[in-house]
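User: quick one - fold this with alpha-D-galactopyranose bound?
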Amino acid sequence: MNFEKFFDSCTPVEASAPGRVNLLGEHTDYNDGFVLPIATPMRTHVAVAPSRDDAFHFHSEDLDDTVVLGQRGRLASGFGRYIEGCIRMLEQSGHTVPPLRIYVRSTVPVGAGLSSSAALEVATLRALRTLLKLPLNDIDIARLAQKAEIVYAGVQCGIMDQMASSLCDASHMLFLDTHSLESQVLSLPSDCEVLVIDSGVARTLAASKYNERRAECETAARAMGLASLRELHHADLLNQVDEPYRRRARHVYFENARTARAAAGCSGAEFGQLMNESHASLRDDYEVSIPELDVLSQLMREAPGVLGARLTGAGFGGACVALCESGSAAAAGASVLSKYNTDGRRGRLLMPQTEQTGANT
Ligand code: GLA
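Assistant: Sure. Structure tokens for the protein plus alpha-D-galactopyranose:
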């Protein structure tokens, strides 16, 4: 099945959206806190046209998979679930969505913690906004995409990934207050660039442990009489909370402070230090790291030109991100991988893009 065959002679509406790499502010979004992501140059492209029958037809070029969905059907699994989630969320908000043909191709790696699902949701909603002339702004799209993820993928996620995919570009960071949804577009610290390496470990525990962490944060907030951990302004209040809830809340408290500090403007060296502290906190207090992410981020820290490194995304696998002096990321990545990829480990460079990682797509 290729694009021309799928759309026959009709011209589809096309849209795309990027993945994201979070630089600071991990596991803070569902606590109403701050995040600081940047878009990936890798994007998901969606083309959409009316169906020729009364069913929805979704095709993924990368998976070489087609799924067909009746108008009232429900998909059990796979890429179509995210698309279906977006369609159903539009319907629940009062929009009429006719049967459609939707074709997807993507260069955002799946399972690496770069939000391939948010990229698919946002690209789908952008294409539907244009096709159906829907009065939705970029924040509306992010909110609908987040609901699709919660209801259809079963992850009680915050709104960072969908806001990043909907609002970020690949050369700026987005400083987002996930409580008010106010945001600022910021430059990276001067003379710096981003390095991202996938650990090669799939994020198998991510969904169940993620939901568990979220519940633990809610317990901690309740114990301190707060509506959310965003309202925690004095670290001494943490003494009122039992373990492990105390260390979960401590991570969120200091991670918010680190993210606000970085967004206020700092040198690359200081930003890197904040990333190193974030990793230690995610490993020791939030307990979402795994040995491979600890090894990989440490190798990154030791590479020439690297200012700081940490796991990025939910944890339990996926990728690490580093801030590097401009011009040093590609060489640092190669040097890290030559050391990391022993004992059966299969890391791979995701950013900066090279021909192997799919540059210019
Ligand atoms: C996943 C979720 C986000 C966020 C991160 C952790 O990517 O989708 O909402 O919570 O984990 O920071």
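One thing worth noting: Residues 22, 26-27, 29-30, 157-158, 160-161, 313-314 surround alpha-D-galactopyranose (CB under 6 Å).
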